[in-house]
Amino acid sequence: MEIAGQLSVYDLPRICPLVCRETNPKYKPSGSRTVKVRGVEFGGDSPVVIAGPCNVETHEQTLAVARAVKRAGAQMLRGGAYKPRTSPHDFQGTGLEGLCILRIASEETGLPVVTEVMDPRLVEEVAEVADMIQIGSRNMQNYPLLIEVGQAKKPVLLKRGMAASLCEWLGAAEYIAKQGNLDIVLCERGIKAFPSGEYSRYVLDLNVIPAVQENTFLPVIVDPSHATGVASMVEPASRAALEFGSHGLIIEVADFSMGRPKCDAAQAIDEKTLARIIQFADSRRRQYASSVQAA
Ligand code: PEP
Ligand code: MN
């Protein structure tokens, strides 16, 4: 029986010739494109750690977390100004004010910023502050948004849709690439699969990391915070992701002395835990350097 719309990785050269490894032999068999975000390099020899609040709530809260992630050694700051919320009655983010706060936090710490855009009409506004534009899981297949973001001339962090196959995810990347922008970093953030929700928020699909690397030259990082939804799982999930070859991590951090975060408090880790994760990422960096020297 023939079924419409069924795809496999063998279809990738046709679906996404711009981002598919097979159709771009100039990248070495396991090599990645290096995506540079204001001096920070994704896809190189060292994993990149991005950290920050789920949500930009106030100037004080954001600056406190930004300083903490800088002290812990993170290379980039994250924070949502426009938030995708399940209920329209819930807090929707601080919007333009949040973007201004992010700019201040970035200037003070020197950390480049990644933040999400959900509305094609706001891409220009977000691109003015963001060093990297995030497409969230819920919008991975919002094709008009992908096209608009592809034209913004900024690196893009493309999160995997929570129920997206590898082909759908790389197809989404192709929309951005088709606009002339190949500065795309993929982000695995957990998928809806049995038994997500029973003891963790989603199921962290670590197996997809080598599969991504086999099928595209684009770097891939992991979000252990949304994938698990449980603060105590974030550190082991981060280590596991790096063991699987992830090019980096994006992690939610909170400073509970500033009050409980409005959003995703149960998955937020503290500065000390982040510092340990970064130490682990650094040790992998050194391991890699010494194995190259020994070879
Ligand atoms: C986020 O990173 O702020 C976020 C909402 O994540 P996701 O789109 O993966 O749910
Ligand atoms: Mn969050």
Short précis:
With 295 residues, the protein is of the alpha/beta class. Helix content is 38%, strand content 13%. Strand 5 (113-116), helix 4 and strand 6 (132-135) form a beta-alpha-beta unit.
Largest sheet: 8 strands, parallel
- Spatial sequence of strands, sheet with the most strands: 9-8-7-6-5-4-3-10
Cα-atom Rg, whole angstroms? 18 Å
| Cα shape | globular
Give the cofactors and ligands: phosphoenolpyruvate, manganese (II) ion
Q: State the total count of DSSP E strands.
A: 10
Task: Figure out the total of helices.
Answer: 10
Class derived from helix and strand content: alpha/beta
Which percent range fits the helix content? 25-40%
Calculate the mean pLDDT score and round it: 95
Element-by-element helix/strand order: HEEEHEHEHEHEHEHEHHEH
- What gap, in angstroms, lies between the N and C termini? 51 Å
Q: Please indicate the percent range of residues in DSSP E strands (runs of 2 or more).
A: 5-15%
* Low-confidence blocks of residues: none
Tell me what the structure shows.
This protein is 38% helix and 13% strand. The protein is built from 10 helices and 10 strands. It has helices at 12-15, 59-72, 95-109, 123-129, 143-150, 166-178, 208-215, 224-228, 231-243, 271-294; strands at 35-37, 40-42, 48-52, 76-78, 113-116, 132-135, 156-159, 184-188, 220-222, 248-252. It has an 8-stranded parallel sheet. Helix 2 (59-72) links the parallel strand 3 and strand 4. Helix 2 runs parallel beside helix 10 (271-294), helix 5 packs across helix 6 and helix 9 (231-243) packs parallel to helix 10 (271-294). Bound molecules: phosphoenolpyruvate and manganese (II) ion (MN). Manganese (II) ion is lined by residues 54, 226, 252, 263-264.
